[in-house]
Amino acid sequence: MKPIPRIKFAHLPTPIEALPRLSTLLGGPRLYVKRDDQTGLGLGGNKTRKLEFLIGEALGNGALTLITAGAVQSNHCRQTAAAAARFGLGCILVLYGDKPTTHTGNLLLDQLFGAEIIWTERTHRDELLKAIFEESWAQGKRPYLIPYGGSNPTGASGYSIALQELLSQTGDNCPLSSPPDWIVVASSSGGTQAGLTLGAKLFNYVGKILGISIDEPREALTQKVSNLANQTADLLGEKFFFHPQEILVNADYLGGGYGVVSKAEIEAIGLFGRTEGILLDPVYTGRAAAGLIDLIAKGFFKPEESVLFWHTGGSPALFADKYAPLLV
Ligand SMILES: *Cc1c(COP(=O)(O)O)cnc(C)c1O
After folding, report:
1. Distance CA 225, CA 185 (A)
2. How many angstroms does the Cα of residue 312 sit away from the middle of ligand 1?
């Protein structure tokens, strides 16, 4: 694998924990969790692994300002803002959606990390992002643009390495004595699943990786994940080719769309909280866990299999005014 720049700041390896009470309650396969909600940076989450490589590239390019975009309660934006602070970079966040009257959850944290926030509508976000980038460049801010969710080949590399980390953890001193039969993960901009998919090939993981789609139909997401996995392989100088049909995505849990909390998410969040003391989030892991629970109920996994839920973080959004009142 060709080395690419990386700045290490995440708290790694993240723990793997068994979920014995939840496994018993659901009566299905043995469940485990990989705690990427505990990556350390500004309350953690999956974007931190991507940011180790994105910041590595940004600093290598002499960047002075990070620019990225996301929804109002974007975990990606919050972790990017924290990383910018940590490395003395400026941070401009382009947030889309209804500008809230109170600043809670991730939006509060964005501001505590000193990010400049620019509001837009979803339909205008790409143009605005381009205009802000050009303006920042002209002002000598040396901007570095991070795509939605940090999902480009540089960012996705973080999840190829994460798969190697997982395999190195399994064994005698880990709750998981051998690699899990399944990895189940929330999948949206695709970088996490693409990185894991490539990592599986690079490091000979033979289990299955199932992405629970958060906001896209199956075909669109498998296409996105396979493209990104191919581009990431190129970046790392590896010759692998992934076809969309090799990518496992379940898009049965899209509900009312991105960020629309329904009974399924509320139940999953409550169940993980009450049974294992683990916080999920209303947008991503709540939905993915709801999918996991439903798939177990339907007998999708064999009882003797092991299933690792790759926790991607997001719990600060639980404290957002938009979500908190719905959850209890
Ligand atoms: C961004 C995010 C995801 C989705 O990861 P992608 O790499 O964009 O597919 C899942 N869970 C949480 C909590 C996130 O913030």
Report:
1. 13
2. 6
d(CA 175, CA 181) in angstroms, rounded, equals: 14
Phi and psi dihedrals of 213, rounded to 5? -70, 135
Q: Whose CA is nearest to atom 1 of ligand 1?
A: 149
Residue 261 half-sphere exposure, CB side, CA atoms within 13 Å? Answer: 23
The string of pLDDT tens digits covering residues 68-107 is 999 999 999 999 999 999 999 999 999 998 899 999 999 9
Site of tokens 């990225």: 68
Answer for the pair 268, 22: CB distance below 8 angstroms, yes or no: no
Q: Is 151 a catalytic residue?
A: no
Would the CA dihedral through 56, 58, 64, 67 be positive or negative? negative
The Å distance, Cα 273 to ligand 1 centre, comes to 20
The DSSP element (H or E) to which 247 belongs, if any, is none
* Atom of ligand 1 lying closest to residue 159 CA: 7
Choosing from 41, 46, 189, 319 the residue with most ligand 1 atoms within 8 A of its CB, the one to mutate for a pocket test is 46
Q: What is the pLDDT of residues 193-230, one digit of tens each?
A: 999 999 999 999 999 999 999 999 999 999 999 999 99
DSSP 214: S
The helix or strand, by DSSP H or E, that contains position 197, with its residue range, turns out to be helix 191-202
Whole-prediction pTM: 0.98
Q: Which residues line ligand 1 (CB under 6 A)?
A: 45-46, 75-76, 149, 151, 186-193, 281, 284-285, 312-314
155 Cα nearest atom in ligand 1? 7
d(CA 149, CA 316): 16
Phi then psi for 310, rounded to 5 degrees?
-85, 105
